[in-house]
Write a structure and sequence with these properties.
Largest sheet: 4 strands, mixed
Low-confidence stretches: 1-6
Strand content: under 5%
Distance between the termini: 62 Å
Strand order of the largest sheet: 1-2-4-3
Number of strands: 4
Oligomer: single chain
Number of helices: 16
Mean pLDDT: 90
Helix content: over 70%
Order of helices and strands: HHHHHHHEHEEEHHHHHHHH
Length: about 425
């Protein structure tokens, strides 16, 4: 790394003790902030059916919603607290340095060191989280009628997910380390280009390459619904290659639909649960919302924003990675790429959170625009009734605390979306 860029940050990160304290403080601050936001959100949930939700939830379904959310909140508090304690103990006892010493003892190659180091951490993290995920899936989700996954399907999904994560993550990480050794201080530019190409590739081919490993996708059969969707697409100038139905009911009762890809590779995917829960007009209205994202160029803009975020992260990483204090703070005896990567990931959390806040604000704005598109070019009331059914079926929180919604929600809450759609309908009239 050139002396000019490194000099900006060298003085701040010369002392490994300071870096260690900052890491611990950030981990604790993140944990405390999350718990405060969860408390605020829980207290915002009324004991009785709010007036604003009458006509959406009935008394029985609202009690079911409260029980579901309260049980999830208690479980989330337990699992997140245990994860936090384990992470803090592992950090304070020098666990990262201990594992790194084992890895580097018999391996000189930086790429292999990094891959094995990160693989070990991922496996341990996955094993520790597995009991919690199992309980959430088969007890909580099963108790409230959401989970339709068999234990065999769960294990199959887990193994496939681990394999894909290992292959894709391993290839990306290999590329970053290789560029680091080959290009020096400019490695982040080459890595950025690599990540950009990967993101574009996945956007184009995710549904064709990844989804079939987990779900069956079949073209929507000829009939009234397909004709209505095709007719709407022609009306708004949306070139639709095909419409697919995915067997989401194998895993959950929750309904969904999404739009993926762009150009000739774009496609609309409907969950089979959506076909059973919504009327044809409501389905077309929900899809009109998805088409709105495309027509307003939200898909490409969001992808460009994601690429920019990755670039910022990689650039900052290039400024810090060679600082020995980062590795030493995690128990290393000198600078190691893999230890610097872990330390940077933790230190980057505040920046990631800030960027995430802006992205969520932007995402909510895009959702309003897509809703307005559906209301303008199809039917706002059908969209509202469809969103109501989807939200109630999933026992969604329709009255989140404003701060919690601002921090975490990528979509506006249902009541706000309903108001915006009806305002748009009145304007159209």
């Amino acid at each position: 790394m050139n002396s000019g860029s490194s000099g900006i940050f060298r003085n701040c990160f010369m002392n490994s003790g300071v870096v260690f304290i900052v890491i611990v403080v950030l981990l604790c601050a993140e944990f405390v902030l999350e718990r405060i936001l969860e408390i605020l959100n829980r207290r915002a949930m009324s004991q009785t059916l709010p007036e604003s939700l009458k006509g959406i939830y009935d008394e029985k379904e609202y009690r079911r919603f409260r029980n579901y959310r309260c049980e999830n909140n208690r479980f989330e508090l337990l699992s997140s607290s245990l994860s936090f304690v384990v992470m803090l103990v592992f950090l304070c006892l020098g666990g990262f340095g201990w594992w790194n010493a084992i890895v580097v003892a018999g391996i000189d190659n930086t790429i292999l060191q990094t891959l094995i180091f990160m693989l070990g951490l991922s496996l341990v993290s996955g094993i520790l989280n597995m009991p919690f995920d199992w309980y959430a899936t088969f007890h909580i989700e099963g108790k409230y009628g959401f989970n339709k996954m068999t234990k065999r399907t769960y294990v199959s999904d887990l193994l496939k997910g681990m394999f894909l994560s290992g292959i894709i993550g391993g290839l990306l990480l290999t590329g970053v380390v290789w560029f680091y050794e080959w290009a020096g201080s400019l490695f982040w530019l080459y890595a950025w280009c690599g990540f950009t190409l990967f993101l574009v590739f996945m956007t184009l081919f995710y549904s064709q390459l990844i989804v079939p490993l987990f779900n069956k996708q079949v073209p929507l059969e000829e009939g009234s619904l397909r004709n209505k969707i095709s007719g709407f697409a022609r009306q708004v100038g949306f070139k639709l290659a095909d419409i697919y139905v995915i067997d989401g009911s194998r895993r959950t009762t929750k309904a969904n639909a999404y739009f993926t890809g762009f150009g000739p590779k774009k496609r609309i995917v409907l969950y089979d649960t959506l076909l059973t829960e919504l009327s044809e007009e409501e389905i077309v209205a929900v899809l009109a919302h998805e088409v709105g994202h495309y027509k307003r160029k939200h898909t490409i803009k969001f992808m460009l924003a994601s690429v920019l975020q990755v670039g910022i992260m990689l650039w900052l990483f290039s400024l810090f990675v060679n600082q020995p204090a980062l590795s030493e703070a995690l128990g290393g005896d000198r600078m190691y790429f893999q230890l610097g990567l872990v330390a940077f990931t933790i230190l980057y959390a505040p920046i990631s959170m800030i960027l995430g806040l802006f992205m969520n604000v932007w995402s909510r704005k895009n959702e309003y625009e897509a809703d307005c598109f559906a209301a303008q070019y199809y039917n706002g009331e059908y969209l509202i009734s469809g969103l109501k059914k989807i939200s109630v079926k999933a026992l969604s929180n329709l009255t989140p605390h404003p701060v919690y919604e601002w921090v975490y929600y990528s979509h506006p809450s249902l009541l706000k979306r309903m108001k915006a759609v009806r305002d748009r309908v009145r304007v159209n009239e």
